[in-house]
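Project standup — Tuesday

K.O.: blocked on the structure for the chain from last sprint. Re-posting the sequence here as requested.
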Amino acid sequence: MLRALVYALAILHLGPGFSFAVLAFGCEPSAPLLGKLCEQNSLASFVWMTLSAWAVMIAALLIKHLLQRHPSAESEHAR
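H.V.: unblocked you, prediction finished:
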């Protein structure tokens, strides 16, 4: 239960942090690296990036959980 809470809080805080860092350093006025994302409303870009970061982190956590729960057939034969 405590591990799930730590994962949830980490994902909750890392999503906006990642988005802020990418938008702050990727949308410099001289040469924006993110192209069209920098041309949009900054709040809309921030929300889109935060939701995308959350989706990627949740998917990675689910894949990690599934791989740990169901080991591959090769590792079962090796035992």
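K.O.: great, moving the ticket to review. The chain has a mean pLDDT of 83. The helical segments are 2-26, 36-39, 42-69, 73-78.
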